[in-house]
Amino acid sequence: MFDDLTKSELYAILAGVFTASLIISNIIAGKTFEFFSFTLPCGVIIFPVIYIVNDVLAECYGYQKARRVILLGFFMNLIAVICYNITIWLPAPSFFEGSEAFRIVLGSTLRLLIASFAAYIVGSLLNAKVMVYLKSKSEEKLFFRCIFSTLIGEGCDALIFITIGFWGLMPVSALVMMIVVQALFKTVYEIIVYPLTKIVISKVKSLDY
């Protein structure tokens, strides 16, 4: 899979995966689902992929290159949102019956957009920053770096997104539970797939530029 790629070429692929995952997450983030007795936003389905790629970028390419991809994802998502809203505003022909469904799915409220953008930029940058900082302290503790940076990044992400996006729409106790469960859910997910993350990081580090 990696044998015919250079490290620079793989960086471009990871940037694409990261950006696409972010756009998907913001389309599905407005819906919640029941997980046993807990309520979670559907963004948790794809968010772990974002943070795993974030870990690989920070570990293998450094904070500055990880930051570039994070900002690229932010601006591409902004472009996507602008395009969604222009499309919604454009008048549809009389025979087109899907305008309302299209608006419901892609026409996120300003509140959710602000929540999503703020949570993403803070959580992603913090995840990368913590990952690189811990690496400077100890090169060998990869598992701890990956999990702790995700817990910090996801914790801030969940706190910002859920507080801004759902405050006043549900009891405070439910908000707190959603924040805690979302952060733990994503962290446990990364623990489960850590062996894969470790293999990818090892392969990427072995590539030539």
Note down, in words, how this protein is organized.
The structure is a single chain. The protein has helices at residues 7-28, 47-61, 63-89, 99-106, 110-137, 142-166, 172-206, and strands at 32-35, 38-41. By secondary structure, the chain is mainly α. It has one domain (7-28, 41-206). The mean pLDDT is 83.
Helix content: over 70%
Distance from N terminus to C terminus (CA atoms, Å) equals 16 Å
- Spatial order of strands in the largest sheet: 1-2
Residues in β-strands, percent: under 5%
Number of strands: 2
Low-pLDDT residue intervals, each spanning 5 or more residues: none
Q: Provide a count of the helices.
A: 7
Main sheet makeup = 2 strands, antiparallel
Provide a compact summary of the structure:
The chain has helices spanning 7-28, 47-61, 63-89, 99-106, 110-137, 142-166, 172-206, and strands at residues 32-35, 38-41. With 209 residues, it is mainly α.
Considering the chains and any ligands shown, give keywords for the structure.
two-stranded antiparallel sheet; 77% helix
